[in-house]
Amino acid sequence: MSDAPYERFRSLARELAERDREIPASIEAARSLALEVRARALEALEAFRTEALASGVPHLTHLEVGPVEPDDKHVDALQVMIRRGRWELVCVAKSRGAVTLVGPYRRGKKEGPCVTLDGRGDELDRTLDERLFELLQEACAR
Question: pTM score, two decimals?
Answer without folding.
Answer: 0.88
